[in-house]
Amino acid sequence: MTKSQSAAGGVALWRQIADAIRLDIVGGKLANGDQLPTEALLAERFSANRHTVRHALAVLAEEGVVIAEQGRGTFVKSIRRLSYPIGKRTRFREGLKGQANTVVTNTLGDRIDNASAQVAEALGLKPGAKVVRLEAVSLADGVPLSRSTTWLAYRQFPDFAARLTELNSITRAFESYGFPDYVRAMTRISARHADVEETRLLGLAPGAIVLVSEAVNADPEGNPLSYALSRFPAERMELVV
Amino acid sequence: MTKSQSAAGGVALWRQIADAIRLDIVGGKLANGDQLPTEALLAERFSANRHTVRHALAVLAEEGVVIAEQGRGTFVKSIRRLSYPIGKRTRFREGLKGQANTVVTNTLGDRIDNASAQVAEALGLKPGAKVVRLEAVSLADGVPLSRSTTWLAYRQFPDFAARLTELNSITRAFESYGFPDYVRAMTRISARHADVEETRLLGLAPGAIVLVSEAVNADPEGNPLSYALSRFPAERMELVV
């Protein structure tokens, strides 16, 4: 343990520095794209050594709050968090309209699976029932925004994956089965650290956070149509209810 | 479908068993870390066969409610995430009813502040307008669940803090100003690492994640009443829309 880690009230100094910079950003003292003071200046301001300042900046970079540009300095990252509206009619592409020029969903694969207790309950099936399972990543303007797994009853939607590929829209795929409309029945939101696969597919730094949404879409009568588990990089996305 | 799945009123027996055990946990008959009765005892209690009991336990394990330890038995898992329902009528205490025996909100302090651009926009005020600012921590069964900062227009609610202390309920404090009802106008949900103060007040480990909700409550006509920034430990709480 370095000296800096045993500072003030047991709180590591690098963490206090990171918090102070975060506050400067949240409070508007530092705006998107602004250059941070140099390491030397920050070290002076916090009575810390440069190693400690560097550690604080590395943590902020990992969180996606700042970006270090070789030879130029460290800047407040101008990532604009996209807002994904969650409501009765929740559509991913529509929801991001006006925030991104292109929203693309790439299907990574599909397979027939047996429903786990959780999937079965969400879809109103018996555990073990056959379900279609789709894996996908969605990108907005080329930046990965969502890694999703979707389950549907096989009996009802045996060739959903093929229709999705053909029609390139979940809404239109449901339409083709005679469901011109669907509504969001339930959304459960939690957060955790990204796992290895998510880190890779979403292009995240180790230690990045994902917002996890579990969602059930239903027909207008309330019969469940699909159950989806979506992971959104917290640094790029927020959910608006 | 096994015999046990066609029991009582169409509700599978394994589901009834799982629900009963879940109730025992929520109701405090079984505490965190407690060992569940043996499969044989549970089978007797529910007049079920052991296969059915095993299925119920497997479902609970999958939900993260219990954990099976090889050769030792099944135990109540010591992380129980509470679900906070967010909807048109969002009330913290009511929302946690049935999930916790006691929900207590401790006010850490209050002061008169000038509205930042963000607060002003949320409350429909001019930036810099006088606002009441309340800091609080809420605990469920003694465990910190939320760290919140709430802003209200000073002009409208000059002594809100005093009334809150007296009435011990936000709902009743609003009532005392002639607002018998309020509705959730907007909720924005994001996630990040807890800062030092949150870590301390919420009793978290360094690196813990908080779900952050920004919420505007309004009167039934849609006029904003309060703006709150709440931080929930992601390991203890999830939000259900």
TrEMBL record, chains A, B:
- Swiss-Prot/TrEMBL GO biological process terms: negative regulation of DNA-templated transcription
Asked whether the keyword Transcription is assigned, the reply is yes
Please list the residue ranges annotated as the HTH gntR-type domain: 11-79
Tell me, what is one Gene Ontology molecular-function annotation carried by this entry? DNA binding
Q: Which InterPro entries match?
A: Bact_HTH_transcr_reg, Chorismate_lyase_/UTRA_dom_sf, CP_lyase_PhnF, Tscrpt_reg_HTH_GntR, UTRA, WH-like_DNA-bd_sf, WH_DNA-bd_sf
What UniProt keywords apply to this chain's record, in alphabetical order?
Answer: DNA-binding, Transcription, Transcription regulation
Top-level lineage group: Bacteria
NCBIfam families linked to this entry = C_P_lyase_phnF (TIGR02325)
Protein name, please? Transcriptional regulator
- Which species does the entry assign this protein to? Devosia soli
